[in-house]
Amino acid sequence: MRKKKIEWPVAPAAHAGAGQCGLCGREVQHTSRHHLVPREEGGRYGPVVELCQPCHSTIHLLLDNRQLARQYNTIELLREAPELQVYLHWVCRSKVERISNRRPRR
């Protein structure tokens, strides 16, 4: 069975307005700034996008900074990341504002 294609909002701005997540497009109460190229990989002054807490946490749980810098350094590339597809399919239909997923200890 094929999954239904997700309809993304029209290109969100780098600082998506009052509470819109730049990744999932949901209206949320709080967003946080995500550096598309992580600061540790040279993106301190690079482009940023406002993300809801579940999206921000999940990105950093499933992808490391090197992957983010080299493979997924735009919002469009993040939306197409195979590692995020199951999550995005779920969160776009969800009303969740906060999740607690922790990085595994190494």
TrEMBL record:
Any one GO MF annotation of this record: endonuclease activity
Entry superkingdom: Bacteria
Keyword annotations of the record: Endonuclease, Hydrolase, Nuclease
Protein name: HNH endonuclease
Species name: Hymenobacter rigui
